[in-house]
What we know:
mainly beta; 35% strand; 9 strands
Amino acid sequence: MLTGKVYYSLASGEIGFGKLRxxxxxxxxxxxxxxxxxxxxxxxxxxxxxxxxxxxxxAGQVTLVNGKQIxxxxxxxxxxxxxxxxxxxIFVFKYPHLKRAMDL
Length: 104
């Protein structure tokens, strides 16, 4: 049975979202007309946290974290944050180690 779940690893420290014509080509290809060639990326910070970044305000207006627009072109992600991209694509950011560290 198919679950509709796909898992992506952030082992390299960064992962990109965008169109096939992006430079560099993003790891996750999104097809909606509102998606920019290099629409967003998630990158690990020196602190060990992960940050979602968008290239400009326009991309931030159509990319949501937990239902809210990205107003400052970047947003630190927490365990189970929901990332919504144009076209109804939703990703759930899972980082259980972060949750455990914050619970201490």
